[in-house]
Fold Secretion system C-terminal sorting domain-containing protein.
Amino acid sequence: MITKFMNMKKSLFSFGYIFSASSIILNGKRSRQLSLFALVLTLILSSNLKAQGSFQILPGITNEDGAFLGPYANAPRRFQILIAHAPISLMVNKYITSISFSLQGSYTNAWPLTDTAFGSYEIYLSKGVTPPNMQMNFAANIVGTQTMVKSGNLMISAGSVPAGNSSNPYAYTLVFDTPYLYTGGNLVIEIRHTGHNNPIDVPVRTLDTNTTVNTTYFSGCWQQNNGITKFNFPFIRLNAVNNLESLGVKSVTIDDGFSVYPNPVKDHLYVKGDKEITEINVFNAAGQKILSQKNTVNSLKLGTSSLSKGVYILQMIDKEGNCTSTKFVKE
């Protein structure tokens, strides 16, 4: 049985699959204990690595048994998501660049029906207490200093959040303005937003509050009227990169004859080089290409006023197909 389990772990690294498979092998109380052990082992050992970084989906099991409106509520919300160190131990010393949620399986329509705007959407990350020690007091759950990683208004285009099946994808990404270096320990993600202008809000997938794994490794609380209460833990995807220079850009040195200024930049970024620059691209913290400009000159001006504050990667490609990249900051 142990050999069979290890083979499954090596071949699949799937949280839900291992949880389900171990539940089938034995019956009764021993089965539930083994299921929890298998889940914890998987949470610690597994990570889906990609060339541009890694991601982890928590809480790591497939069944959902609750809902929470917080992330996409049309009324103001403030809530905290607490994650123990063990499930995200492989993300130590990586930069968390964004998060995303998945709609509840019973919700069948892509959301929103029309473009939807949040007046303000803020995300804070920090170290925190262990989930079992969570208090109904936001400040008491934070260890050290909170870091604001995202702020400002938020526009979600019509149909951006998919739905329609029991495993809705994590397809809408809340990209941070400033990547957060996770150095270990328990993690607190706090979200504060003012609600949106759409009459329809939608629930995200969650794990029931009373689930053993939820109580031990995950927890969450939110502000309701004048009080704070516990809520079902939302399924969440954490995206990370090893370093800021690896945000989706493969660099090849052209030469030392180029310059990029000013840095930090406000409205316009100037690029000069000894060779003819045929293309310039800008990547955000999630490794997504957000600006692209074709050129046939040795110097150019790139408009950056539409960019949000944060760290970006500038990629330049010369007429011979070589490319180089550098980091710049939009203030």
Residues 19 and 35 are 6 Å apart (CA to CA). Residues 53-245 form one domain. The chain is about 15% helix and 45% strand. The longest strand covers residues 268-283.
